[in-house]
Amino acid sequence: MSTPSSPLRQRITKVSYPYVAKLHAAPKLTLPGITLLLALVGVFAPVQVGVPALVLLALLLGWLAFLSWPAVTTGPRFLRIFTILVILLFGVSRIAAG
Fold this sequence. Notes:
- 82% of the residues lie in helices and 0% in strands.
- It is mainly α and 98 residues long.
- It has one domain.
- The chain starts with 6 loop residues before the first helix and ends with a helix.
- The model has no long low-confidence stretch (mean pLDDT 93).
- InterPro entries: DUF6703 (IPR046549).
- The chain crosses the membrane at residues 29-47, 54-72, 78-97.
- Keywords: Membrane, Transmembrane, Transmembrane helix.
């Protein structure tokens, strides 16, 4: 039995569909490659470049988590939220360290 989704979820899913389709059609390592690139830039680049890369990474993971939210159980949901929070906290720590 499926649960009704909110109008916001339906709208975001509809707008996201072309991008998800392009990612699905891309080579298999495209998304992991983008994720790895953003993470490495976020960790090793100067703060002015690294923090925006970490924010982009958190937004990408947040978007994917939002889209997959109804299909996952509590454990994976917690892990996705935790991962995004760790990335954002690392960005804040990079700003604080200057």
